[in-house]
Amino acid sequence: MLKSLYSGVTGMKNIQTKMDVISNNIANVSTTGFKTGRVRFEDMLSQTNAAAQTGINAQQVGLGVQVGSIDTVMSGGSLQSTGRALDFGIENGDSSFFNVTDGTNTFYTRDGGFYTDPDGNLVTSGGLQVQGYMATPAAVNDATFDPASLGTNMTPITIPQTIGGAELQSYNVDSDGFIVGSYSGGQSLVLGRMGLTSFSNPDGLQKSGGNLYTESANSGDPVNGNPADAGYGSIRSGFLEMSNVDLANEFTEMIVTSRSYQANSRSITTSDTMLEELINLKR
């Protein structure tokens, strides 16, 4: 009898955790690059009243439920056109992320809404510097340009306003991530290339707030690469990745979760009624 009370309590407590995750998913349905979460449950220890024997199954009574995992579903969200040159979406690369830094720590994000600061540095809305591969010096954009000349170490991306006295007129980023600037005098220069970082288990990344993730013991090591390389996806300028939250699914889960909470509450009140009847036998 008392076991049923405590089983009901574990059900209510852990179902509340699922409701917390569902509410967070719905709250972030419009958050750029947000990845939905899900909760999976598993049963707790069972009390064995009789061990299994040949031809006879064991007699066991479960002692409740517990949270098995809270997963981040890293499937890609759809890309939404913005028409803004410094908005970037990653296409066909669910395990790839933009690499950003605060100068000391490195973070990873799918939110490609970037800006430039007064010094021409490419930054996030929170002021973190976006990293990639810079051409030093900037290379002429012609058929002889060798992408290998950009090097393999990521550094903060800068879009110079002037090069050799020539003024920046415009710039663009192609699907391979190359940043090409047009300068006065008709110069077209490759300034650098956007960088991407991939993980063997992106589901293992830890959320750090601000649409940022950090490496964890279960994510695997970060592997830097280039847009359009195998497994990294391509970059689409003028697009942002939308949240992958499915509202229809979340509302359905909310209904099921609410009913489960009510059912667990009812099991507690029913057990209490049975205990009351037992106590009343003495009267």
Could you explain the architecture of this structure?
The structure is a single chain. With 283 residues, this protein is α+β, with helices and mostly antiparallel strands. It is built from two helices and 22 strands. The strands form seven sheets. Strands 7, 8, 11, 12, 13, 14, 15, 16, 17 and 20 form a ten-stranded antiparallel β-sheet that branches. Strands 1-4 form a two-stranded antiparallel ribbon. Strand 7 and strand 8 form a beta hairpin.
Uncertain runs with pLDDT below 50, 5 residues or more?
Answer: none
Q: Indicate the proportion of strand residues.
A: 35-45%
Task: Summarize model confidence as the mean pLDDT.
Answer: 91
User: What's the alpha carbon Rg, rounded to whole Å?
Assistant: 27 Å
Give, in order, the helices and strands: HEEEEEEEEEEEEEEEEEEEEEEH
Which structural class do the helices and strands define? alpha+beta
Tally of alpha and pi helices: 2
Summarize the biggest pleated sheet. 10 strands, antiparallel
Question: What is the count of structural domains?
Answer: 2
Helix content: 10-25%
Number of strands: 22
Shape: elongated
In whole angstroms, how far apart are the ends?
A: 20 Å
Features:
283 residues; alpha+beta; 2 domains; ten-stranded antiparallel sheet; two-stranded antiparallel ribbon; elongated
How do you describe this structure in short?
With 283 residues, the chain is an alpha+beta fold. The protein is 21% helix and 36% strand.
